[in-house]
């Protein structure tokens, strides 16, 4: 059951906020499938139970059966809905990771696209479930399937029931006329907002800004956040505080991490530190010129190794070029400049200290 009688602020699960909303949705879907088909499924075994595709195909056939009964009972309403008319072939004995399991999952995906008209943006691929490549897309697809099936009388998860409740509340506030084709509604579980204010205040109190990030209660389950007029709907889903965001859901903790100024800064800073690659060390070799070839013949040439990190070099300041004075012409019959001797020793190379 989704109610949380006697729940306290300590019941909020200590998951990372970016993963908590996905955990909450899997928990809701697992309980929904458990009630529908009496499966031995929990949030910890959610993917293991569904990875063979047998339960998914069985669910698709059940949705098609419910849609057929609805079309016979309410033909006028059924004409305005996209109802599935064909089922799915399934291999119930498929083992995880086998080609039979992949065929089951692939058949379910094709059924969702063709019979339920689920858009590609909400679909998943076979590898997303079998190889766990994209767990999020798989969960979102199941939730969208539940929304569409609830239109013709299929029992819906708690999240979908809360969505319908919020839509009705908005319709009443805006004084909108009822829909032309009223859809059947499955019995809903009573909502529990007893501890909602306390749990919201606990999450908002983590703000460390000089002026606390505002979150003002407007009515039961509705709050104004920030300095704008943005209104959000907040609900309790078991041990999670959920926020209705666009066409989906998010946890209040993750929502605040993206909107509270002090949490946004700390979150981006942590991600920057996490994604920053370690600096690689490179070596530059600087060789010293010998004073005389005869003095160093047969001896190893000295070398100076300078180690530095691969960091951006400081900018180079460019100056104007100073023009040289015109060269003095050489005296006739002389191959050397004035003041020099033809037998002068070559100048010793100067050692220039390295800039690093």
TrEMBL record:
Could you identify this protein by its name?
A: Gas2-like protein 2
GO cellular component, alphabetical, reads: actin filament; cytoplasm; microtubule plus-end; stress fiber
Tell me which UniProt keywords the record has, alphabetically: Cytoplasm, Cytoskeleton
Q: Which Gene3D superfamilies match?
A: Calponin-like domain (1.10.418.10), Gas2-like domain (3.30.920.20)
Location(s) in or outside the cell: Cytoplasm, Cytoskeleton
Is Cytoplasm among the key words of this record? yes
Give me any GO biological process, just one.
microtubule bundle formation
Q: Where is the Calponin-homology (CH) domain?
A: 23-150
Q: In what residue span(s) does the GAR domain sit?
A: 191-263
Task: Write down the superkingdom of origin.
Answer: Eukaryota
Organism for this UniProt entry: Limosa lapponica baueri
Molecular function terms in GO for this entry? actin filament binding; cytoskeletal anchor activity; microtubule binding
Using the UniProt annotation, give all residue ranges assigned to the region (Disordered). Answer: 292-356
Q: What is its main location?
A: cytoplasm
Tell me which family the UniProt entry assigns to this protein.
Belongs to the GAS2 family.
């Amino acid at each position: 059951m989704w109610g949380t009688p006697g729940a306290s602020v300590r019941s909020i699960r200590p998951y990372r906020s970016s993963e908590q909303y996905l955990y909450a949705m899997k928990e809701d879907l697992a309980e929904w499938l458990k009630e529908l088909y009496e499966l031995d499924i929990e949030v910890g075994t959610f993917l293991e139970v569904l990875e063979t595709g047998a339960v998914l195909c069985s669910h698709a056939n059940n949705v098609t059966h419910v849609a057929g009964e609805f079309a016979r009972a309410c033909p006028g309403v059924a004409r305005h809905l996209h109802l599935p008319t064909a089922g799915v072939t399934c291999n119930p004995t498929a083992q995880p990771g086998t080609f039979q399991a992949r065929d089951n999952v692939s058949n379910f995906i094709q059924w969702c696209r063709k019979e339920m008209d689920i858009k590609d943006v909400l679909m998943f691929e076979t590898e997303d479930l079998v190889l766990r490549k994209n767990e999020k897309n798989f969960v979102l697809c199941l939730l969208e399937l539940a929304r569409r099936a609830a239109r013709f009388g299929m029992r819906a998860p708690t999240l979908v029931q809360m969505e319908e409740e919020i839509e009705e509340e908005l319709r009443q506030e805006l004084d909108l006329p009822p829909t032309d084709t009223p859809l059947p509604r499955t019995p809903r579980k009573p909502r529990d907002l007893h501890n909602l204010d306390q749990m919201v205040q606990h999450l908002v109190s983590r703000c460390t800004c000089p002026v606390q990030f505002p979150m003002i209660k407007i009515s039961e389950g509705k709050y104004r956040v920030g300095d704008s007029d943005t209104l959000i709907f907040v609900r309790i889903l078991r041990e999670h505080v959920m926020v209705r965001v666009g066409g989906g859901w998010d946890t209040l903790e993750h929502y605040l991490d993206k909107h509270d100024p002090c949490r946004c800064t700390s979150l981006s800073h942590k991600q920057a530190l996490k994604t920053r690659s370690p600096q690689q060390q490179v070596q530059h070799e600087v060789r010293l010129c010998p004073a005389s070839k005869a003095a160093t013949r047969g001896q190893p040439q000295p070398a100076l190794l300078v180690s530095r990190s691969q960091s951006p070099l400081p900018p180079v300041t460019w100056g104007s070029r100073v023009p040289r004075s015109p060269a003095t012409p050489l005296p006739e019959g002389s191959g050397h400049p004035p003041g020099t001797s033809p037998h002068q020793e070559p100048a010793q190379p100067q050692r220039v200290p390295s800039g690093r």
